[in-house]
Amino acid sequence: MDNPRAVTQTLVSRLTSDGAGVTLRRSIGSQVLSELDPFLLLDNFGTENPDDYIAGFPDHPHRGFETVTYMIKGLMRHRDNTGAEGLLGPGGVQWMTAGRGIIHSEMPEQREGEMSGFQLWVNLPAAEKMCDPRYQDIDPADVPLVSTEGGVDIRIIAGSVNGVEGPVNGIAIDPTYLDIALGKEGVHEQDIPEGHTAFLYVFDGQAEVAGKSISTHELAVLGVGDGVRVSSSKGGRLILVAGRPFGEPIARYGPFVMNTKQEIHQAIEDFKNGNF
Ligand code: FE2
After folding, report:
1. SS3 category, 123
2. What is the 91 CA–ligand 1 centroid distance (Å)?
3. What pLDDT, on a 0 to 100 scale, did the predictor assign at position 155?
4. Which of 2.60.120.10, 3.40.50.2300, 3.30.750.24, 1.10.3430.10 would CATH assign to domain 7-272?
5. How far is the C-alpha of 196 from the C-alpha of 171, rounded, in Å?
6. Which residues lie below 8 Å from residue 174, measured CB to CB, with a gap of 6+?
7. Which residues lie closer than 8 Å to 49 by C-beta, 6 or more apart?
8. Would you call 92 exposed, middle or buried from its count of C-beta atoms within 10 A (0-12, 13-18, 19+)?
9. Cα of 235 from ligand 1 centre, angstroms
10. How big, in percent rounded to 5, are the helix, strand and coil portions of the chain?
């Protein structure tokens, strides 16, 4: 790393509710930061109170982008109108490319105990928005864990750390998605491709990034450069995410993200007429 990235913006995620009444914290996709090209939304769910998650996310559509679910604790069952079904457990990842459209549900498979994790929305380039839906369902055992000499445990969902590659592949943004657990006095320097949009989100403890202290539930947007240095005096855990931006117009209406208003109207029509 020759040119470390600085923090250009921070924001504290906001408590909100989505689905049938799931309490979560939203950072990207909020009024403060509507998008961070190519990222459209970041939700962090994390609670021990079943009332905050039990209602889940019953049947709903998506078109024009990808949803990435990373479970940290708990069990979530996924079903869709193509017949695909899967159970996401702790440490598991689902990278779903909605493409031209799917209707799915994401429901907790537990009635008590903690449920926590992330859902990230990743845009698709115009040329791929109407592609066939597809999935990468990744078992926790297939997410490599690298423990560094700097006292840091890194789970690699996408991208690479010290030559170890994450399992996600074939994604338009060429993503980096790391879960970084910094022990007390832990330090890690991570390469990030130049030109990629990058952010991190602290979900436990605290982290120092380029001279700034980032607290729990805070998102930090990173500036230009070829990497980032993260450390923590007290210990902390964060996700670090990066990807190639598209620089294309965004037209957005709820679960549909296209390039033009006309394409949004078409998505609403297609959904109404059962053409998903
Ligand atoms: Fe969904």
Report:
1. strand
2. 19
3. 98
4. 2.60.120.10
5. 14
6. 193, 196, 243, 244
7. none
8. buried
9. 32
10. 10, 55, 40
Rg (the chain; Cα; Å): 18
- Give the distance (Å) from ligand 1 centre to CA of residue 275: 17
Question: With a cut of 50, which residues of the chain have pLDDT below it?
Answer: none
How far apart are the CA of 188 and the centre of ligand 1, in A?
A: 33
> How close is the Cα of 67 to the center of ligand 1, in Å?
7
What is the reported pLDDT for 30? 94
What pLDDT score was predicted for residue 150? Answer: 87
pLDDT at 180: 98
CB atoms within 10 A of CB 59: 12
Tell me the CA–centroid distance for residue 39 and ligand 1, in Å. Answer: 15
For residue 41, give both structure tokens: 């939304």
Handedness of CA 105, 110, 111, 113 (dihedral sign): negative
Q: How far apart are the first and last CA of the chain?
A: 45
Which phi and psi angles does 225 have, rounded to 5°? 150, 180
Tell how far the Cα of 226 is from the centroid of ligand 1, in angstroms: 33
pLDDT at 263: 98
pLDDT, residue 106, reads: 95
Give 159's DSSP letter: S
217: CA distance to ligand 1 center in Å?
A: 22
Question: What is the per-residue pLDDT for 90?
Answer: 97
CA 113 / ligand 1 centre spacing (Å): 22
How far, in Å, is the centroid of ligand 1 from the Cα of 106? Answer: 7
